[in-house]
Structures
1.
Amino acid sequence: MLRPPLSGPPERRGAVGLWALPLLTVLFLYACGEHGAAPPRAKTVDSAPAAEARPAPDAPPQPFLRAREDGFDFGSLLQGETRTHGFKIGNAGPAGVTIHRVQTDCGCALAKIISPSGESIVPLPGSQGEADLLTLAPGEECELVVELITRDQRPGRLEKSVQMHSSDPARPTLRLRLAADIVRAFVLEPESAVFGQVRRGDTPQCTILVRPAAKELEAVRIVGFAELPPFLDATSEERLDDSGKRSFEVTIRLKDCAPTGCLQPTFFARLDHPTFTALPLRATATVHSRIRFDTGNPDNRELIEFAAMLPGAASLRHVEIQNEQPDRPYTITGVEVDSKYASLITPEVVTLEAGVHYRIDVSALPSANVRFLRGSLRILSDHPDQPVKEIPFQGWLEGRR
């Protein structure tokens, strides 16, 4: 349907249209309200200036522990070199801060605190729960001195840290990075002195050739040894190759007083270098007493093998004991059976030569309800090198293995 044109001049018609717009808007909003949709609320703008936020209630003054640097890179260090670095740590807060403890994540890093008065405070390992170390007043500063020891570290990148625990509520643990590139200092051929299996009283010796691997160590010399165990001797002899390069031949000798057991000592060659002062050297040996034990088992002379047994039938085995040092008598003081089937094992000591030669007859009488027979003999003596000797035994019932 066509609408009739508006009457009147164009100016009047435009004025009427502009006047009608607010009325149409109100009618539209009213219609929306009638159908359940709430009209949007206009935002009010306060022409007055915004009021300032109220400050929080007064809080007690808090400490603030701050370090001038968050870590230190030592750069390239020779393997075995020791370096130190000091971290300046202060209290930038308005209240005192208490340092509870200092920890490192590696035995290669040692830490101590220099107080504002110059006192040296060395934290004890695992000191959690012990007395506090130090309290810094506002504005006071201490120094955390960290010593990095590289003698037991492998060549390559080393990254560790040191932690300072304090009463700073915002950061109770201050963590400081430590880093270094460990450079091989010497080449050892072989890397350790391996004596292998030896008898007590033997005095074998091994030689390690020590060659500088870093140019700055070509003029260094071995001037002695430190932390040598009492059962080792060590000497050093300087050598020059055809090109004039220096090396050292270190001879290590095992003394006749070496104790029985597995020995793995580490000691140090002392060097005339300002920061690289000690080169670690290692030795290994398994020292057996002069008391020999022989079960007659060709596969293992110190194992009693009953093998297959019949129920109710006794099996007899022997252990021969020979003392190779008659001037140090060996006397058996007892034999114990360590097994849940101890009642089935009967040992009997036979003295062939007092202090020198013995035989132990070991009888096994298994019952039908035993599938495997396992345990050990504990041979007790008054000899200082061999007070206890354990000889294992084993066997099984025929057809029940």
2.
Amino acid sequence: MRLKNHPKIVKVTVLTFMLGACSIQSSINDSVVKPFSMNDAEETIGSIDIYDDKAYQYLDNETLVSVRGKGFDWVEGPVWVADGNYLLFSDIPKNLIRKFSIAHGNQIYLENTGFSAPSAKGPGSNGLLINQKNELVLLQTGERQVSLMQAPLNQPKARFTNLVNNYHGMRLNGTNDGVFDQQGNLYFTDPAIGLDVVFKAGDNRQEKRLVEKQYKKPLTREKRVQQTPFAGVYRLSVHGELILVDDTLTVPNGIALSPDDKTLYVSVSDKRAPAWFVYDVQDDGSLANRREFFNAQYLIGQPEQQGLPDGMAVHSSGVIFATGPGGVWLFSPEGEVLAKIKTGLATSNCTFTTDEKTLYITADDNLLSIPIK
């Protein structure tokens, strides 16, 4: 493992006042947040497995997983908007963001969200965040950048300010998921997912060369070529400094912080080595003491274990709700498996409402929800 004891810093052109502190929910003052509740949906799926009595603080074996929408493409990046009580989530292949609310169900919120060409030409946004100014920040996989929407949340427009798109002049791979710490510094993952020409290690495992992926049909667009010879985990500071904090993970994907900002969790969506990792966050924001949090290799290919370690949401108690093989895993901060929400689907991400009474889950072409105690 090679962490950055003295990380290289890249100064990027960024409007730093736009990077407000953020959690997985909107961070507006709780005093103005309207109460939110909803009944179970008519259609439910899956089941709950409890492995540790601590899990009963959050759910029961009888808790129902409600289907809130289906028939999408591949949905990801859910974020709760407290000022309005609605959910935003990305439909990546469709290059759009969808909106779910009790009053109106599922609607298209915004098109061309991650790739400036028409929707069929490339992947859209992935992870979505709400900053302290109640603005939408997008991990734009298609444009390979982190951006801020230049419009109010209630009047969305496909106008974006690029916050960062390169490291030492090399284009990022395809920004995937992110999390703000309490100061407004953004940690994000940048795997080579969705690129057509990628770096592969040679026989000696040291040298890397670019290899073109083979598709059944010829591409009708320009090839997307990897420029950074690694998949990075980065920290974009509130001052516009881009710091590579780890370049050793094969496919870094989901990312989350503990409630005290002292621990960072990163999932690795690699079929050959699927796992969750954990780091200590130092006072300067760098990472140290990387260790394996949970290894999921034994689950790959097993019945009812669809999917790979992916997006996460951390409860205020410190319990990690982590999407992975077969559904959503509940881990204690020490790495104990407490429970599993079995969706029966490849499950990509999850997020809480502000009061943490509902967990929304994106799973394949479905939007799900489950009540939390």
